[in-house]
Amino acid sequence: MDVAAGRAVPAPGAARARWRRKLRKIGFGLSVLVIVSPAILVFLWMLSLSLKNEIDNLAYPPVFIPSQLTLRNFVQVFAENSMGLYFWNSIVVSGLATLVALAIGVPAGYGIARTQAHKLTVLILIARMTPALSYLIPLFTVFQLLGLNNTRTALVITHLVITVPIIVYVMAGHFETLPRELEEAALIDGGSVWTTFRYVALPLARPGIVVATILAFIFSWNNFVFGAVLAGRATRTLPAAVYNVLTFEQLAWGPLAAAAIVVTLPVLLLTIVIQKEIVVGLTHGGIKG
Amino acid sequence: MHAAAPTHVPRPGFLARRRRSYLLFVAPALVVVGAVIIFPWAFTVWMSAFDWKIGSVAHFVGFDNYTQLATNKRFLESILHTFYFTLLAVIFPLILGTIAALIFHREFPLRGMLRSIFTMPMMATPVAVALVWTMMFHPQQGVLNYLLSLVGLPPSLWVYSPTWVIPSLVLVEIWHWTPLIMLIVLGGLAALPTEPYESARLDGASEWQLFRYITLPLLAPFLIVAAVIRTIDALKAFDTIYVISQGGPGTASETINLYLYLQAFAFYNVGNASAVVVVFFVIILALALLLLHVREKAKWT
Q: Do A264 and B129 touch (CB under 8 A)?
């Protein structure tokens, strides 16, 4: 409207309005920049530290763009600090904990959705409110008695504390959104509850299962304290290893930053893959571990 | 079930029997939840009545662990540190997250990509992030003091100063969790009705008035949910504090969780640590219920 009027008769007032609109646009762009830049800058700084040599890393004022790109830091953490072993430990622990949780959590989510047994989700809410450390004291004591401390088995069992609630919660919510007509029909045609679940509901729930799996895996992967307390020298998961083995006393900033990238890159990649679904899963339950 | 098709009316007992078989679906999960969640709970409450160090004999002491905590200066200070940390780590992400949501609610080029970047910190592994922040906080070579010098501010000791350690740790927390608040508030903004805005605009309301008198009250339920989630998470914060400051310098940033960790896994004081867990959980529950109560009240006004 204003634009059309301005074009017809270029009055001084219209020019000022156009200016003001332009200024407002620039101001908005700046605010986007201000709000997004801390998020990206920390990651870029981590990348920069990992790709620079020690001279650059200790320079003051800090050097942002490496004077000499180097992959030596990555080579060092893998070759001299058995990063590969810890990586494998993390994959085994988070992978198994997620698989076990899927096997028991998907049917449970279905059962909760179909019987409307919402009291069970309260249990999960309480689980979410409890500090992770408080599970550790009793489990540590029991594992001590069973001689399971320092084993991957103990870690997998403990990680169920994280993965089971996430999967049950996401799946219960997901099954509730599925149409029930097909299941009703299958039941009336003489299908058992189990076959109905297996051949009707389960295939439809595939997208929900993908989200639940990835979320459970991420939060299990990110967990630090279970590994720090329960794992032994050879069974540490990545986050625990990064803290316990790769210390500031022993290593320079470059290798440490490289290790930090190795730990968090898989998670960031997974996040990008299912960006939209993660948002839905997280905001509906706020189920962070 | 719909009563629309009378031919499909189930035989008596049909539903009840089905209900029972559905519970079979839940049974394995119940067993696991019982073993790794409920058993630890019961065990913790039980152990809190004992004086027990791992490797020695347990003595029943009743409520002694609790009465000792009530006069334990270090524990009481850790509660204050926790509250201070939580207050800052709830308020700032709430304000910044709401502003970010208002920005991302508008249309602009590359919005999807920028939003993905903005939410990246939320999923990043806390320990990895904490390592990088430790380097950024370094008083001599850290990039943060360099940034301060660029805008003409004196250098700070950051996490090495007893006064600044908690605000510095909160800075990491803000960076890490503001995206979650943004997502929750963004969900709220998407659900807002448009009519009140149209009529208010006709009445000549300013942008600020629209926000203050329409958007904010309508967003209140979402903000409270966000505040509850943030409060629970801030009270439970552990990884970043443990990695960056270990509760130091001295005990300046020792929160309940840090104190608990030391009692349990440095001193193996299982009985005492169990009592800390119970007190800690009561605090978390009380604050969560308080906030939910505020929400119930807000609904009626």
A: yes
